[in-house]
Write a structure and sequence with these properties.
With about 130 residues, this protein is mainly α. The protein is about 75% helix and about 0% strand. It has ten helices and no strands. The protein has helices at about 1-20, 25-30, 35-40, 45-55, 55-60, 65-75, 80-85, 90-95, 100-110, 115-130.
């Protein structure tokens, strides 16, 4: 039974990795940019959000983010953060500070305008209702 579950998990991982634009968040990716995820998770605290807003670069240094990751944070490069090992749920805590919706993040990840991304999302509704 455990072998079946392990095989299914490996199959699912391989499938996810084969999908262009999919960034499977697994143990390897978690280790890849642990500092970014730790910093983003810290933003659940109002005090930490205030400290971040007061001096973003210093806050990034506090969590030992490398120069490239700091650049991704400062430029709000959502897909870059995910590609570098950021967990989308943690990265979204940073987006929430800027009052950026998950749709904005999704649009950037798909190289679309917000309007194009919303139209894409709504096109699936039309297919379901058709």
């Amino acid at each position: 039974m455990a072998d079946d579950v392990s095989a299914r998990i490996e199959h699912d991982k391989a499938t996810a990795r084969s999908l262009q634009g999919t960034y499977l968040f697994d143990g390897e990716r978690a280790r890849k940019n642990f500092a970014l995820n730790k910093m983003c998770m810290s933003l659940t605290s109002p005090e930490n959000r205030a400290a971040f807003a007061a001096n973003e670069q210093a806050y990034c240094r506090k969590f030992a983010l490398d120069d490239e990751t700091t650049r991704l944070v400062m430029s709000r490069d959502w897909i870059g953060m995910v590609r570098s090992g950021g967990n989308i749920y943690y990265v979204y805590k940073l987006a929430a500070i800027d009052h950026v919706s998950m749709q904005h993040v999704g649009a950037q990840q798909n190289a679309m305008t917000l309007e194009q991304f919303r139209a894409k999302l709504n096109s699936h509704k039309e297919l379901d209702n058709g």
